Amino acid sequence: MKTLRKLNKDEITLLKLLTDAYLFANLSDVADSKWDREEKSALNYVTVNHVNGLDANLCSTVCNPIEKAIVNIIGRYLYEEWTSFSNLIVDDLVKLIDEKLNGGLKWKK
Questions:
Q1: 53, CA 20 to 30 Å: which among 4, 14, 25, 47?
Q2: How many CB atoms lie within 10 A of CB 56?
Q3: 3-class secondary-structure state, position 50
Q4: Where are the domains of the chain?
C-alpha cells in the first residue's frame, strides 16, 4: 500500500488531465440513439459532447492504462475509496486525502 501523503501541484494537474482523458474516452461507447448529440459533460478542464467521433473500442484500451497511471500516483486503496463516491473529481480526492491526514477518516479495509 502506498503511504498516504499530500499530492503536489504537478500531481494534481496530471490527475486532472488523466481523469479528463479517462472520462472522455469512456464516452466513446455511447450510442447515438441513447443521447442527444448536443448533450454535454463538463470535465475538469473541458466540456465535451456525450456523442462523439471516437471509436467505441477506445473505451477499454484507453481507460484501463489511465486507471493504472492514476493508481501508480495514489495507490490502489485510495483509488478504490475515491471512485466509490466520486466520478473521478480530483477536488474530491484532495479533500479525501486531507480528511484522512487530519484523522477524520479511516482507511477502508
A1: 14
A2: 10
A3: coil
A4: 9-101
Q: What angle do CA 72, 5, 23 make, to 5 degrees?
A: 45
What pLDDT, in 10s, does the model give residues 36-80? 566 787 788 788 877 777 887 888 899 999 999 999 999 999 999
Contact 96, 12 (CB under 8 A): no
Lowest mean pLDDT among 17-26, 45-54, 57-66, 85-94: 45-54
| Alpha-carbon span 87 to 43, nearest angstrom | 10
Three-state DSSP class for residue 22? helix
Pairwise CA distance, residues 38 & 13, whole Å: 28
Question: Residue 29 contacts by C-beta under 8 Å, 6 or more apart in sequence?
Answer: 56, 59
Would the pTM of this model clear 0.85, i.e. be above it?
no
